[in-house]
Write a structure and sequence with these properties.
Elements lengths: L10 H161 L4 H26 L3 H17 L9 H19 L5 H14 L9 E6 L5 E2 L17 E2 L5 E6 L5
Antiparallel strand pairs: 1-4, 2-3
Helix pairs in contact: 2-3, 2-5, 3-4, 4-5
Length: 325
């Protein structure tokens, strides 16, 4: 076997090989610089993009774990409360079932009572119809009574007018009562004057004067009861009594004469003070009408409207003529 030795390299070849080595070294250096620059710029970004979010996610996961634990505890408590509430509701449901059963029984009883009431209402309606027919008949009777009452009221009104006329007549000065009153007052004055004359015979001037004063007062009060034609006669009597009273203090010797004159004037009486020969006075009592009705609902069988009418009659009084003393 033969060995061949390589031919010796030329200068150009060696230069080319040196240039290639230099070029590889430069390329390697550029690669190292580029790799270093890449690491310098990419490591912080990778940290911010990967490490920091991972830490934040870890913290959030821990917070979520804590919240989950709290929620789990709350859910456990709520579940226990719900279970207790369910038990209470079941107990209340059992009680409600019993209440519903009681209400159902009460409703059935009320339904039976309602049926009985409906039957009673039907019977009451029939009674009401019968009562209404009776009421119509009673109203017809009441209308007739109203007509009678209107007639009686007219009679009462006419009677009251008569009573008013009678009252006016009795209150007048010409009425028999006024005539008798004046005569009685004159008799009283004559009695007092007579008693005064008796006291004079006994020389009791004090009592005699007092009786004359009483007679004067009676006759003076009589002025309001006189008619105009009697005023002069009464004034003459009063003037004579004034003279008698003056005689007690001034002329006692004239007492008997003046008393006699006064006595004669009283005996003559008052003019036109006479009762008629006959005087029929009709005393009319106002009729009293009483209507009483009794009506209850529903009326009893056979019940009717009743009315009571009571009217008093008139009475005549005849007075005879009396003579003045």
């Amino acid at each position: 076997m033969s060995t061949q030795t390589p031919p010796p390299s030329t200068f150009g070849q060696r230069l080319f090989e040196a240039f290639m080595r230099l070029l590889r070294a430069v390329l390697l250096l550029l690669l190292l610089v580029a790799f270093g620059a890449f690491l310098f710029w990419s490591i912080p970004k990778a940290y911010n993009a990967l490490v920091l979010p991972l830490q934040e996610h870890t913290a959030r996961i821990e917070d979520l774990q804590t919240q989950q634990d709290q929620l789990s505890a709350q859910l456990i408590e709520q579940n226990a409360a719900l279970l207790q509430r369910i038990q209470e509701l079941e107990t209340a449901r059992d009680a409600d079932k019993q209440t519903i059963a009681d209400l159902q029984a009460a409703l059935e009883r009320m339904q039976s009572d309602l049926d009985a009431l409906n039957a009673s209402q039907s019977a009451s309606q029939q009674q009401l119809d019968a009562s209404l027919s009776k009421l119509d008949a009673l109203q017809a009777d009441l209308s007739a009574l109203d007509a009678q009452l209107s007639s009686l009221q007219q009679e009462v009104q006419s009677t009251q007018e008569g009573v008013t006329l009678l009252s006016d007549y009795l209150a007048s000065q010409e009425a028999p009562v006024a005539v008798l009153y004046r005569e009685v007052q004159l008799v009283k004055a004559m009695e007092l004057l007579t008693r005064s004359r008796i006291f004079l015979t006994r020389n009791d001037l004090g009592k005699a004067k007092q009786d004359v004063q009483d007679a004067y007062a009676i006759l003076n009060d009589l002025k309001t009861m006189l008619v105009p034609a009697q005023m002069d006669a009464l004034d003459a009597i009063l003037q004579r009594l004034d003279l008698v009273l003056q005689d007690f203090d001034q002329n006692p010797s004239l007492l008997q004469d003046d008393m006699e004159s006064a006595w004669r004037l009283l005996l003559a009486g008052l003019p036109e003070n006479r009762l008629p020969v006959t005087n029929d006075l009709q005393i009319v009592v106002t009729p009293s009408v009483e209507l009483s009705t009794t009506l209850e609902y529903p009326p009893e069988p056979g019940e009717t409207l009743t009315g009571t009418l009571e009217i008093t009659t008139t009475e005549s009084i005849t007075s005879e003529n009396t003579t003045t003393p």
